[in-house]
Amino acid sequence: EALDSNDVEIISSKISECDVISTAVGVRALESISVSIANGIEKRFKMNPKPVDIYLCENTLDSPGILKSFVFDKLENSIKVWANNNIGFVGMIVARMVPSSSKVFGIDDPLFVVADAYHKLPYDGNALKSKPLSFEGMYAVNNFVAEFERKLFTYNLGHAVLGYLGYIKGYEYVHEPFSDSFILDIFNGALDETSYALSNKYPGYITFEQQKEIRIDVITRFGNPMLMDTVVRVCKDPIRKLGPNDRIIGSINLCQRYNIFPENILKVCAAAYNFDDASDGMALELQKIIKENGIENAIFKVSNINPKSKIGKKIIEYYYGFKNF
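Given the sequence above, the corresponding structure tokens read:
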């Protein structure tokens, strides 16, 4: 059954009676769906006051809190108390890749979907208000922050290396940079840097040896030529990905916290600031910020990096260096 997301009345009725709710709309759209969810919670409170969990497949650590805030702003105080005890806002870690694929495979059909075989779906077990679901590959984790950061600073960072440096070198697909020794060295170096940092931050929970095993999975999946995942898709929305808490700058900050100089991640950051594909509005916006403010002010404005710091100076040095590629 398919429903229009603008049909608040029907969706809120479904929410009032369903067994589970999940979202996959993007963080920017959470506010727009919060109206339907708030109305549904109000109806559920009055007609069917059973606990229910909302699983957020949004790939950001703070998405449960963001949605909860939007929803609770729309609830009466008496319902807020009930909802706080009965509505779970559950973070999830989504790592399966679904490339933009229809015409790449010679099939012009919006319902044709290609995905890789990865089927692990961890979620924040401490956030549940209802019973756990029993789907294959879906499992609770007790340290959700550690698992999320492992994914962000391993899988997402690895993707960023292949994407932004692949774009600089003129590759079309994400699997192609693995044959480029220059990019491969940076890829391994960047993941070494975050692996050491993560094992320092979560001793006993994350180890460097575990990270080496995960890297084999990363290389196998990202290097799969059958996915035909494009470099441009991976690079899209660079302003968000260059944000202070996202995959690149978040990795840099993590490494600095544990006295690991992130030489390779700085190269990824510089490459990302060079991403200027005309098909991506955020890439064009990023280039506009650089043009109007200069790269020095841009890295402060977008990434909160001091351009006069050792880190900032290195990013700027590599930024200009990549312009000559």
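DSSP finds 13 helices and five strands in the chain. Try to locate this feature in the token string yourself.
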